[in-house]
Amino acid sequence: MENNKLNRRQLVTLIGGLAGAGAAATLYAATGDVAAPKPSITAPSKPASAMQQVPWPYKPVDADVVAQRAYESYWKGHCMYGSFEAIVATVAGHLGEPYTNFPYMMFKYGAGGVNGWGTLCGSLNGSLSAIQLLSPDPNPIIDNLMAWYEVEPLPNFYAKGAKFPEVRSAAGTPLCHESIAHWCKASGKKSYSPERIERCGTLTASVARKTVQLLNDQAAGKHLTVLAQSKQTQSCSVCHEHGGELENMRAKMDCGGCHQVQIKSGHGVI
Amino acid sequence: MENNKLNRRQLVTLIGGLAGAGAAATLYAATGDVAAPKPSITAPSKPASAMQQVPWPYKPVDADVVAQRAYESYWKGHCMYGSFEAIVATVAGHLGEPYTNFPYMMFKYGAGGVNGWGTLCGSLNGSLSAIQLLSPDPNPIIDNLMAWYEVEPLPNFYAKGAKFPEVRSAAGTPLCHESIAHWCKASGKKSYSPERIERCGTLTASVARKTVQLLNDQAAGKHLTVLAQSKQTQSCSVCHEHGGELENMRAKMDCGGCHQVQIKSGHGVI
Prior knowledge:
The structure is a homodimer. Chain A is mainly α. Chain A has 8 helices and 2 strands, in the order αβαααααβαα.
Protein backbone atom coordinates (compact mmCIF):
# COMPACT_ATOMS: atom_id res chain seq x y z
CA MET A 1 0.00 0.00 0.00
CA GLU A 2 2.82 2.36 0.80
CA ASN A 3 4.27 1.85 -2.69
CA ASN A 4 0.91 2.50 -4.30
CA LYS A 5 0.62 5.69 -2.35
CA LEU A 6 4.02 6.78 -3.44
CA ASN A 7 3.20 6.01 -7.05
CA ARG A 8 0.01 8.02 -6.92
CA ARG A 9 1.89 11.10 -6.02
CA GLN A 10 4.07 13.34 -8.08
CA LEU A 11 6.75 15.69 -6.97
CA VAL A 12 5.89 19.24 -7.80
CA THR A 13 8.04 22.22 -7.25
CA LEU A 14 6.50 25.10 -5.41
CA ILE A 15 7.83 28.57 -5.36
CA GLY A 16 9.35 28.31 -1.94
CA GLY A 17 11.17 31.56 -1.80
CA LEU A 18 11.29 33.39 1.48
CA ALA A 19 8.26 35.57 1.98
CA GLY A 20 8.96 38.71 3.86
CA ALA A 21 12.51 38.36 2.71
CA GLY A 22 13.43 41.84 3.80
CA ALA A 23 14.21 42.21 7.47
CA ALA A 24 13.48 38.58 8.28
CA ALA A 25 15.96 37.20 5.78
CA THR A 26 18.79 38.97 7.50
CA LEU A 27 18.28 36.54 10.37
CA TYR A 28 19.24 33.68 8.13
CA ALA A 29 22.62 32.38 7.14
CA ALA A 30 22.32 31.59 3.46
CA THR A 31 25.51 29.62 3.27
CA GLY A 32 23.98 26.15 3.45
CA ASP A 33 26.42 25.38 6.26
CA VAL A 34 24.49 23.31 8.79
CA ALA A 35 27.28 22.91 11.30
CA ALA A 36 26.17 23.82 14.82
CA PRO A 37 26.98 27.49 15.34
CA LYS A 38 28.94 28.62 18.36
CA PRO A 39 26.98 30.07 21.28
CA SER A 40 26.16 33.70 20.75
CA ILE A 41 27.89 36.12 23.06
CA THR A 42 25.44 38.93 22.36
CA ALA A 43 22.24 37.05 23.18
CA PRO A 44 22.20 37.51 26.97
CA SER A 45 21.71 41.26 26.57
CA LYS A 46 18.36 40.80 24.83
CA PRO A 47 15.28 41.82 26.84
CA ALA A 48 12.77 39.18 27.89
CA SER A 49 10.22 40.54 25.44
CA ALA A 50 12.46 39.38 22.57
CA MET A 51 11.15 35.91 23.37
CA GLN A 52 7.62 37.00 22.50
CA GLN A 53 8.52 38.03 18.97
CA VAL A 54 7.70 35.36 16.36
CA PRO A 55 9.70 34.16 14.51
CA TRP A 56 12.72 33.79 16.72
CA PRO A 57 16.04 34.31 14.93
CA TYR A 58 17.00 31.01 13.36
CA LYS A 59 20.41 29.79 12.30
CA PRO A 60 20.92 26.38 10.69
CA VAL A 61 21.64 23.51 13.06
CA ASP A 62 22.79 19.94 12.48
CA ALA A 63 19.74 17.82 11.58
CA ASP A 64 21.29 14.51 12.69
CA VAL A 65 22.30 15.93 16.07
CA VAL A 66 18.77 17.24 16.58
CA ALA A 67 17.34 13.86 15.56
CA GLN A 68 19.39 12.03 18.17
CA ARG A 69 18.34 14.57 20.80
CA ALA A 70 14.69 14.10 19.77
CA TYR A 71 14.98 10.37 20.35
CA GLU A 72 16.39 10.93 23.81
CA SER A 73 13.82 13.63 24.66
CA TYR A 74 11.02 11.29 23.54
CA TRP A 75 11.77 9.08 26.52
CA LYS A 76 11.42 12.09 28.84
CA GLY A 77 8.21 13.65 27.53
CA HIS A 78 6.91 11.61 24.56
CA CYS A 79 6.65 12.47 20.89
CA MET A 80 5.44 16.08 20.73
CA TYR A 81 7.77 17.20 23.48
CA GLY A 82 10.58 15.17 21.90
CA SER A 83 10.51 16.81 18.50
CA PHE A 84 9.81 20.33 19.77
CA GLU A 85 12.37 20.29 22.56
CA ALA A 86 15.11 18.87 20.35
CA ILE A 87 14.65 21.52 17.67
CA VAL A 88 13.86 24.61 19.73
CA ALA A 89 16.12 23.96 22.72
CA THR A 90 19.01 23.40 20.30
CA VAL A 91 18.33 26.74 18.64
CA ALA A 92 17.70 28.44 22.00
CA GLY A 93 20.98 27.04 23.30
CA HIS A 94 22.76 29.05 20.65
CA LEU A 95 20.63 32.16 21.18
CA GLY A 96 20.96 32.21 24.98
CA GLU A 97 18.65 34.14 27.33
CA PRO A 98 15.71 34.76 27.27
CA TYR A 99 15.02 32.02 24.68
CA THR A 100 16.22 29.24 26.96
CA ASN A 101 13.30 29.85 29.32
CA PHE A 102 10.60 28.26 27.19
CA PRO A 103 8.33 25.85 29.14
CA TYR A 104 9.03 22.81 26.97
CA MET A 105 7.08 20.34 29.09
CA MET A 106 3.83 22.00 28.03
CA PHE A 107 3.99 19.77 24.94
CA LYS A 108 3.73 16.51 26.79
CA TYR A 109 0.00 16.45 25.97
CA GLY A 110 0.63 15.55 22.32
CA ALA A 111 1.59 11.96 23.17
CA GLY A 112 -0.31 9.38 21.15
CA GLY A 113 -2.16 12.01 19.14
CA VAL A 114 -3.20 13.92 22.31
CA ASN A 115 -3.00 11.80 25.45
CA GLY A 116 -3.74 8.62 23.49
CA TRP A 117 -6.69 9.96 21.49
CA GLY A 118 -5.03 9.02 18.20
CA THR A 119 -5.48 12.36 16.42
CA LEU A 120 -2.56 14.40 15.00
CA CYS A 121 0.79 12.60 15.31
CA GLY A 122 2.63 14.21 18.21
CA SER A 123 5.99 14.27 16.46
CA LEU A 124 4.31 16.38 13.77
CA ASN A 125 2.50 18.60 16.28
CA GLY A 126 5.77 19.41 18.05
CA SER A 127 7.62 20.01 14.82
CA LEU A 128 4.85 22.24 13.52
CA SER A 129 5.04 24.38 16.66
CA ALA A 130 8.78 24.68 16.11
CA ILE A 131 8.33 25.64 12.46
CA GLN A 132 5.88 28.41 13.28
CA LEU A 133 8.19 29.67 16.03
CA LEU A 134 11.36 29.66 13.91
CA SER A 135 10.40 30.35 10.30
CA PRO A 136 9.49 33.70 8.73
CA ASP A 137 7.47 31.78 6.10
CA PRO A 138 6.18 28.64 7.84
CA ASN A 139 3.39 27.48 5.53
CA PRO A 140 5.55 25.98 2.73
CA ILE A 141 7.52 24.05 5.34
CA ILE A 142 4.35 22.87 7.09
CA ASP A 143 2.78 21.63 3.85
CA ASN A 144 6.00 19.94 2.84
CA LEU A 145 6.36 18.14 6.16
CA MET A 146 2.74 16.99 6.32
CA ALA A 147 2.70 15.64 2.76
CA TRP A 148 6.04 13.92 3.29
CA TYR A 149 4.82 12.26 6.49
CA GLU A 150 1.82 10.74 4.73
CA VAL A 151 3.82 8.78 2.18
CA GLU A 152 7.39 8.39 3.41
CA PRO A 153 8.29 4.96 4.84
CA LEU A 154 9.22 5.85 8.43
CA PRO A 155 11.14 5.80 10.74
CA ASN A 156 14.11 6.58 8.52
CA PHE A 157 16.48 7.64 11.30
CA TYR A 158 17.65 4.96 13.69
CA ALA A 159 18.99 6.55 16.82
CA LYS A 160 21.84 5.40 18.99
CA GLY A 161 20.33 3.38 21.79
CA ALA A 162 17.50 1.87 19.74
CA LYS A 163 17.61 -1.90 20.11
CA PHE A 164 14.89 -3.40 17.90
CA PRO A 165 15.15 -4.18 14.17
CA GLU A 166 14.26 -1.43 11.70
CA VAL A 167 10.75 -1.63 10.24
CA ARG A 168 9.43 1.18 8.06
CA SER A 169 5.88 1.99 6.96
CA ALA A 170 3.98 4.92 5.45
CA ALA A 171 1.29 6.40 7.68
CA GLY A 172 -1.22 7.28 4.94
CA THR A 173 -2.40 10.33 6.92
CA PRO A 174 -0.94 12.69 9.53
CA LEU A 175 -2.98 10.91 12.21
CA CYS A 176 -1.38 8.93 15.03
CA HIS A 177 -3.70 5.93 15.15
CA GLU A 178 -3.44 5.19 11.47
CA SER A 179 0.32 5.67 11.52
CA ILE A 180 0.50 3.07 14.29
CA ALA A 181 -1.91 0.70 12.53
CA HIS A 182 0.18 0.71 9.35
CA TRP A 183 3.36 0.10 11.28
CA CYS A 184 1.78 -2.77 13.23
CA LYS A 185 0.78 -4.34 9.93
CA ALA A 186 4.28 -3.94 8.49
CA SER A 187 6.10 -5.19 11.59
CA GLY A 188 3.72 -7.83 12.90
CA LYS A 189 4.06 -6.19 16.33
CA LYS A 190 1.29 -4.99 18.59
CA SER A 191 0.37 -1.37 19.25
CA TYR A 192 1.38 -1.44 22.91
CA SER A 193 4.51 -3.56 22.37
CA PRO A 194 8.00 -2.35 23.37
CA GLU A 195 8.89 -2.39 19.66
CA ARG A 196 6.09 0.05 18.76
CA ILE A 197 6.94 2.32 21.68
CA GLU A 198 10.57 2.46 20.54
CA ARG A 199 9.43 2.99 16.95
CA CYS A 200 7.59 6.15 17.97
CA GLY A 201 10.89 7.38 19.41
CA THR A 202 12.76 6.82 16.16
CA LEU A 203 9.79 8.28 14.29
CA THR A 204 10.08 11.40 16.46
CA ALA A 205 13.77 11.57 15.58
CA SER A 206 12.97 11.13 11.87
CA VAL A 207 10.33 13.89 11.81
CA ALA A 208 12.54 16.29 13.80
CA ARG A 209 15.39 15.65 11.35
CA LYS A 210 13.20 16.33 8.33
CA THR A 211 11.90 19.51 9.96
CA VAL A 212 15.41 20.83 10.55
CA GLN A 213 16.41 19.96 6.99
CA LEU A 214 13.47 22.02 5.72
CA LEU A 215 14.23 24.94 8.05
CA ASN A 216 17.85 24.85 6.92
CA ASP A 217 16.84 24.68 3.25
CA GLN A 218 14.57 27.67 3.62
CA ALA A 219 17.23 29.59 5.52
CA ALA A 220 19.61 28.88 2.65
CA GLY A 221 17.09 30.27 0.17
CA LYS A 222 16.42 26.92 -1.49
CA HIS A 223 13.14 26.15 -3.20
CA LEU A 224 11.00 23.64 -1.30
CA THR A 225 9.28 20.73 -3.00
CA VAL A 226 5.88 19.53 -1.78
CA LEU A 227 4.32 16.20 -2.68
CA ALA A 228 1.09 16.69 -4.60
CA GLN A 229 -2.20 15.28 -3.32
CA SER A 230 -3.15 11.83 -4.59
CA LYS A 231 -5.39 11.71 -7.65
CA GLN A 232 -8.05 10.15 -5.46
CA THR A 233 -8.03 13.13 -3.09
CA GLN A 234 -7.94 15.56 -5.98
CA SER A 235 -11.04 13.83 -7.30
CA CYS A 236 -12.82 14.18 -3.94
CA SER A 237 -11.91 17.86 -3.85
CA VAL A 238 -13.69 18.61 -7.12
CA CYS A 239 -17.04 18.41 -5.32
CA HIS A 240 -16.19 18.80 -1.64
CA GLU A 241 -13.53 21.54 -1.56
CA HIS A 242 -13.48 25.27 -2.23
CA GLY A 243 -15.59 26.13 -5.27
CA GLY A 244 -17.01 22.62 -5.60
CA GLU A 245 -20.71 21.88 -5.93
CA LEU A 246 -20.95 20.75 -2.31
CA GLU A 247 -18.10 22.76 -0.74
CA ASN A 248 -18.62 21.09 2.62
CA MET A 249 -15.00 20.26 3.43
CA ARG A 250 -11.71 21.93 4.20
CA ALA A 251 -8.76 19.57 4.22
CA LYS A 252 -5.43 18.90 2.54
CA MET A 253 -4.96 15.47 4.12
CA ASP A 254 -5.39 12.33 2.06
CA CYS A 255 -9.06 11.22 1.99
CA GLY A 256 -8.20 7.60 1.23
CA GLY A 257 -6.36 7.24 4.50
CA CYS A 258 -9.70 6.79 6.29
CA HIS A 259 -12.46 6.76 3.70
CA GLN A 260 -11.44 3.97 1.31
CA VAL A 261 -14.70 2.09 1.63
CA GLN A 262 -16.85 5.19 1.26
CA ILE A 263 -14.95 5.98 -1.90
CA LYS A 264 -15.14 2.44 -3.30
CA SER A 265 -18.83 2.07 -2.55
CA GLY A 266 -19.80 5.25 -4.34
CA HIS A 267 -20.08 7.29 -1.16
CA GLY A 268 -21.62 6.45 2.16
CA VAL A 269 -22.04 8.53 5.25
CA ILE A 270 -20.26 11.74 6.10
CA MET B 1 -26.92 12.12 13.86
CA GLU B 2 -25.79 14.41 16.66
CA ASN B 3 -28.70 13.27 18.79
CA ASN B 4 -27.92 9.63 18.10
CA LYS B 5 -24.37 10.24 19.18
CA LEU B 6 -25.51 11.90 22.34
CA ASN B 7 -27.85 9.03 23.11
CA ARG B 8 -25.13 6.45 22.66
CA ARG B 9 -23.09 8.00 25.37
CA GLN B 10 -23.46 7.93 29.09
CA LEU B 11 -22.13 10.25 31.70
CA VAL B 12 -19.74 8.52 33.98
CA THR B 13 -18.01 9.98 36.93
CA LEU B 14 -14.29 9.60 37.12
CA ILE B 15 -12.19 10.10 40.14
CA GLY B 16 -10.89 13.47 39.12
CA GLY B 17 -9.06 14.42 42.25
CA LEU B 18 -5.90 16.41 41.99
CA ALA B 19 -2.88 14.22 41.43
CA GLY B 20 0.28 15.53 42.93
CA ALA B 21 -1.90 17.41 45.33
CA GLY B 22 0.96 18.22 47.63
CA ALA B 23 3.12 21.14 46.57
CA ALA B 24 1.19 21.77 43.37
CA ALA B 25 -2.15 22.16 45.09
CA THR B 26 -0.85 25.08 47.08
CA LEU B 27 -0.81 27.02 43.82
CA TYR B 28 -4.56 26.72 43.57
CA ALA B 29 -7.29 28.71 45.14
CA ALA B 30 -9.89 26.14 46.17
CA THR B 31 -12.60 28.68 46.84
CA GLY B 32 -14.53 28.20 43.61
CA ASP B 33 -14.42 31.97 43.16
CA VAL B 34 -13.89 32.58 39.46
CA ALA B 35 -13.76 36.36 39.60
CA ALA B 36 -10.70 37.75 37.85
CA PRO B 37 -7.98 38.16 40.46
CA LYS B 38 -6.16 41.44 40.86
CA PRO B 39 -2.72 41.72 39.23
CA SER B 40 -0.05 40.24 41.44
CA ILE B 41 2.40 42.71 42.88
CA THR B 42 4.95 40.02 43.74
CA ALA B 43 5.23 38.46 40.27
CA PRO B 44 7.81 40.84 38.74
CA SER B 45 10.46 39.60 41.18
CA LYS B 46 10.33 36.08 39.77
CA PRO B 47 13.34 34.99 37.74
CA ALA B 48 12.94 34.27 34.03
CA SER B 49 13.47 30.56 34.64
CA ALA B 50 10.15 30.46 36.54
CA MET B 51 8.55 30.53 33.10
CA GLN B 52 10.16 27.23 32.23
CA GLN B 53 8.55 25.36 35.13
CA VAL B 54 5.41 23.44 34.14
CA PRO B 55 2.73 23.85 35.36
CA TRP B 56 2.59 27.59 35.79
CA PRO B 57 0.75 28.75 38.89
CA TYR B 58 -2.95 28.90 38.01
CA LYS B 59 -5.70 30.86 39.67
CA PRO B 60 -9.30 30.68 38.46
CA VAL B 61 -10.31 33.21 35.84
CA ASP B 62 -13.69 34.20 34.40
CA ALA B 63 -14.64 31.70 31.68
CA ASP B 64 -16.98 34.06 29.84
CA VAL B 65 -14.40 36.83 29.74
CA VAL B 66 -11.83 34.39 28.34
CA ALA B 67 -14.37 33.17 25.77
CA GLN B 68 -14.97 36.68 24.47
CA ARG B 69 -11.22 37.28 24.28
CA ALA B 70 -10.80 33.99 22.38
CA TYR B 71 -13.31 35.15 19.80
CA GLU B 72 -11.43 38.40 19.31
CA SER B 73 -8.03 36.68 19.22
CA TYR B 74 -9.34 34.23 16.61
CA TRP B 75 -9.53 37.09 14.14
CA LYS B 76 -5.88 37.92 14.81
CA GLY B 77 -4.29 34.47 14.64
CA HIS B 78 -7.00 31.86 13.97
CA CYS B 79 -8.38 29.10 16.17
CA MET B 80 -5.37 27.57 17.95
CA TYR B 81 -3.85 30.95 18.69
CA GLY B 82 -7.27 32.25 19.71
CA SER B 83 -7.99 29.69 22.40
CA PHE B 84 -4.43 29.49 23.73
CA GLU B 85 -3.81 33.23 23.83
CA ALA B 86 -7.12 33.97 25.52
CA ILE B 87 -6.54 31.45 28.30
CA VAL B 88 -2.82 31.79 28.90
CA ALA B 89 -2.42 35.53 28.34
CA THR B 90 -5.28 36.12 30.78
CA VAL B 91 -3.52 34.02 33.41
CA ALA B 92 -0.13 35.53 32.55
CA GLY B 93 -1.62 39.00 32.87
CA HIS B 94 -2.33 38.25 36.51
CA LEU B 95 1.05 36.59 37.10
CA GLY B 96 3.14 39.33 35.49
CA GLU B 97 6.75 38.92 34.32
CA PRO B 98 8.25 36.64 33.08
CA TYR B 99 5.03 34.82 32.10
CA THR B 100 3.83 37.64 29.85
CA ASN B 101 6.72 37.00 27.45
CA PHE B 102 5.33 33.83 25.88
CA PRO B 103 5.52 33.83 22.04
CA TYR B 104 1.79 33.35 21.47
CA MET B 105 1.91 33.71 17.68
CA MET B 106 3.73 30.37 17.45
CA PHE B 107 0.27 28.76 17.55
CA LYS B 108 -0.97 30.29 14.34
CA TYR B 109 -0.11 27.02 12.57
CA GLY B 110 -3.09 25.19 14.09
CA ALA B 111 -5.57 26.99 11.84
CA GLY B 112 -7.92 24.64 9.99
CA GLY B 113 -6.46 21.55 11.66
CA VAL B 114 -2.86 22.62 10.82
CA ASN B 115 -2.70 25.17 8.01
CA GLY B 116 -5.87 23.80 6.41
CA TRP B 117 -4.94 20.11 6.58
CA GLY B 118 -8.12 19.28 8.50
CA THR B 119 -6.52 17.26 11.31
CA LEU B 120 -6.92 18.15 15.01
CA CYS B 121 -9.32 21.08 15.58
CA GLY B 122 -7.15 24.11 16.31
CA SER B 123 -9.35 25.40 19.11
CA LEU B 124 -8.72 22.07 20.84
CA ASN B 125 -5.00 22.09 20.07
CA GLY B 126 -4.60 25.53 21.63
CA SER B 127 -6.70 24.65 24.65
CA LEU B 128 -4.77 21.42 25.17
CA SER B 129 -1.48 23.34 25.18
CA ALA B 130 -2.95 25.66 27.78
CA ILE B 131 -4.18 22.76 29.92
CA GLN B 132 -0.77 21.09 29.97
CA LEU B 133 0.86 24.42 30.80
CA LEU B 134 -1.53 25.35 33.61
CA SER B 135 -2.73 22.14 35.26
CA PRO B 136 -0.84 19.92 37.72
CA ASP B 137 -3.00 16.99 36.56
CA PRO B 138 -3.83 17.67 32.90
CA ASN B 139 -4.98 14.27 31.64
CA PRO B 140 -8.46 14.21 33.23
CA ILE B 141 -9.11 17.68 31.81
CA ILE B 142 -7.80 16.69 28.38
CA ASP B 143 -9.98 13.58 28.22
CA ASN B 144 -12.99 15.51 29.42
CA LEU B 145 -12.56 18.26 26.83
CA MET B 146 -11.95 15.88 23.93
CA ALA B 147 -14.97 13.69 24.71
CA TRP B 148 -17.17 16.74 25.23
CA TYR B 149 -16.09 18.23 21.89
CA GLU B 150 -17.09 15.08 20.01
CA VAL B 151 -20.73 15.14 21.09
CA GLU B 152 -21.64 18.63 22.27
CA PRO B 153 -23.66 20.75 19.82
CA LEU B 154 -21.30 23.69 19.23
CA PRO B 155 -20.72 26.63 19.19
CA ASN B 156 -22.53 27.22 22.47
CA PHE B 157 -21.04 30.64 23.20
CA TYR B 158 -22.06 33.47 20.93
CA ALA B 159 -19.61 36.30 21.25
CA LYS B 160 -20.27 40.01 21.08
CA GLY B 161 -19.58 41.06 17.53
CA ALA B 162 -20.82 37.86 15.89
CA LYS B 163 -23.41 38.75 13.27
CA PHE B 164 -24.77 35.52 11.78
CA PRO B 165 -27.58 33.33 13.21
CA GLU B 166 -26.65 30.63 15.71
CA VAL B 167 -26.32 27.12 14.26
CA ARG B 168 -25.02 24.29 16.42
CA SER B 169 -23.73 20.84 15.45
CA ALA B 170 -21.74 18.02 17.04
CA ALA B 171 -18.38 17.30 15.41
CA GLY B 172 -18.38 13.52 15.87
CA THR B 173 -14.57 13.51 16.27
CA PRO B 174 -11.90 15.97 17.43
CA LEU B 175 -10.92 16.53 13.78
CA CYS B 176 -11.36 19.85 12.03
CA HIS B 177 -12.61 18.69 8.66
CA GLU B 178 -15.36 16.54 10.07
CA SER B 179 -16.37 19.26 12.52
CA ILE B 180 -16.76 21.61 9.56
CA ALA B 181 -18.61 19.04 7.44
CA HIS B 182 -21.19 18.45 10.18
CA TRP B 183 -21.71 22.15 10.68
CA CYS B 184 -22.12 22.72 6.93
CA LYS B 185 -24.80 20.03 6.88
CA ALA B 186 -26.62 21.58 9.86
CA SER B 187 -26.43 25.15 8.57
CA GLY B 188 -26.72 24.67 4.84
CA LYS B 189 -23.70 26.95 4.47
CA LYS B 190 -20.49 26.25 2.59
CA SER B 191 -17.13 25.48 4.16
CA TYR B 192 -15.46 28.66 2.94
CA SER B 193 -18.48 30.91 3.58
CA PRO B 194 -18.32 33.93 5.90
CA GLU B 195 -20.79 32.14 8.17
CA ARG B 196 -18.48 29.13 8.61
CA ILE B 197 -15.47 31.36 9.21
CA GLU B 198 -17.36 33.23 11.92
CA ARG B 199 -18.61 29.93 13.35
CA CYS B 200 -15.02 28.80 13.90
CA GLY B 201 -14.52 31.99 15.92
CA THR B 202 -17.49 31.28 18.18
CA LEU B 203 -16.38 27.64 18.35
CA THR B 204 -12.97 28.83 19.54
CA ALA B 205 -14.70 30.92 22.19
CA SER B 206 -16.84 27.93 23.24
CA VAL B 207 -13.89 25.56 23.57
CA ALA B 208 -11.82 28.13 25.47
CA ARG B 209 -14.73 28.68 27.87
CA LYS B 210 -15.15 24.96 28.51
CA THR B 211 -11.41 24.63 29.09
CA VAL B 212 -11.40 27.39 31.69
CA GLN B 213 -14.44 25.88 33.39
CA LEU B 214 -12.57 22.58 33.70
CA LEU B 215 -9.39 24.26 34.96
CA ASN B 216 -11.44 26.16 37.51
CA ASP B 217 -13.29 23.02 38.58
CA GLN B 218 -10.05 21.15 39.09
CA ALA B 219 -8.53 24.08 40.96
CA ALA B 220 -11.57 24.03 43.25
CA GLY B 221 -11.04 20.32 43.93
CA LYS B 222 -14.20 19.23 42.12
CA HIS B 223 -14.54 15.80 40.55
CA LEU B 224 -14.51 15.88 36.75
CA THR B 225 -16.98 13.92 34.64
CA VAL B 226 -15.89 12.41 31.31
CA LEU B 227 -18.26 11.16 28.63
CA ALA B 228 -17.84 7.43 28.03
CA GLN B 229 -16.90 6.11 24.61
CA SER B 230 -19.80 5.08 22.37
CA LYS B 231 -20.80 1.42 22.47
CA GLN B 232 -19.69 1.16 18.86
CA THR B 233 -16.18 2.31 19.72
CA GLN B 234 -16.08 0.09 22.79
CA SER B 235 -16.95 -2.80 20.50
CA CYS B 236 -14.10 -1.92 18.10
CA SER B 237 -11.71 -1.74 21.03
CA VAL B 238 -12.37 -5.31 22.08
CA CYS B 239 -10.23 -6.57 19.17
CA HIS B 240 -8.16 -3.54 18.15
CA GLU B 241 -7.11 -1.94 21.44
CA HIS B 242 -4.78 -2.91 24.26
CA GLY B 243 -5.10 -6.60 25.10
CA GLY B 244 -7.34 -7.34 22.12
CA GLU B 245 -6.70 -10.16 19.67
CA LEU B 246 -5.35 -7.77 17.04
CA GLU B 247 -4.05 -4.92 19.26
CA ASN B 248 -3.15 -2.83 16.23
CA MET B 249 -4.65 0.48 17.34
CA ARG B 250 -4.21 3.16 19.97
CA ALA B 251 -7.02 5.68 20.08
CA LYS B 252 -9.69 7.10 22.34
CA MET B 253 -11.48 9.01 19.57
CA ASP B 254 -14.79 7.79 18.21
CA CYS B 255 -14.27 5.21 15.42
CA GLY B 256 -17.68 5.87 13.86
CA GLY B 257 -16.74 9.46 13.10
CA CYS B 258 -14.81 8.26 10.04
CA HIS B 259 -15.29 4.52 9.70
CA GLN B 260 -19.08 4.08 9.56
CA VAL B 261 -19.03 2.19 6.28
CA GLN B 262 -16.18 -0.07 7.31
CA ILE B 263 -18.12 -0.92 10.43
CA LYS B 264 -21.44 -1.48 8.64
CA SER B 265 -19.89 -3.61 5.91
CA GLY B 266 -18.25 -5.97 8.33
CA HIS B 267 -14.84 -4.38 8.02
CA GLY B 268 -12.97 -3.20 4.99
CA VAL B 269 -9.53 -1.73 4.66
CA ILE B 270 -7.39 -0.36 7.45
